[in-house]
Amino acid sequence: MDRFEGRCWLDWWANSSTNLAGDEVTVVITTTDTGWDAHGRLVSASEQAHEGMTILCEIDPVFTLRFDDRTSMPVTVHLLEEAGHFVMTE
Length: 90
Known about the structure:
Elements: E1 3-15, E2 18-32, E3 35-42, H1 47-59, E4 62-66, E5 72-79, E6 85-89
């Protein structure tokens, strides 16, 4: 995969059996010489969705990025100044 652009879900798990949050996001993931570059935004532009993500990132910024085909991978979310926008790292 050189590039993925589409909708996914960012899930925040409290433990192995409790998913406390699942937000739909749009992401763009591209490969680079050193790995990958990924950024996205929340689909919901509500202040409540943004505040929820901010609180979860403060507790623990590790989310599970879940694709439509049910594959997933852990990512660290770094919120940007613009509400609802973020970058992800492995």
